[in-house]
Model the fold of this input.
Amino acid sequence: MNTELDHQRHLLVIDDKNFLSGESVLAFFKILLKSKPYKYVILNDVTAIGENCIYGLFRNYDDTIFRIKDLLNIMEDVKHFEWGDFYFFDKFPSEWDHPIECDYPYLIKQSETVVRLIDDQYIYLYITEDSVIEDIKNEYSIESLKTDFLDKLDFPY
Done:
């Protein structure tokens, strides 16, 4: 688990031309997971619409730990994402800590990788792996890429 704020990360931003459709987000996750096969994910503040889920259903799962295959199965029914934070882990995140009043760097530093879905349109990826960045750049047009200390990166609300 990454625990230092002074650890540099990449922030990659994608302007999703499909406006965070369920299909589009699922395709992005599959590319990410092919490049770096995480085993667990924690969801937070996810708002989505789908055939078997209603607006905000994912909010019931805040801070719930999912196996990746279970998340991908749930995502099959999603038609559209408005917002959401996905914290990815190689190992079971038994030390996960999410106080009521905390900032994004505090949460992000606990995971290997974070995907944030923002405002029906943007994918923010916080990651340390250069190879994953290259794999994603091969598939997507990148809006911006910044590498800096975690507390100097952007965190839209």
Q: What stands out?
A: The first helix runs from residue 22 to 35. The chain is about 20% helix and 35% strand. The mean pLDDT is 88. The first strand starts at residue 8 and ends at 15.
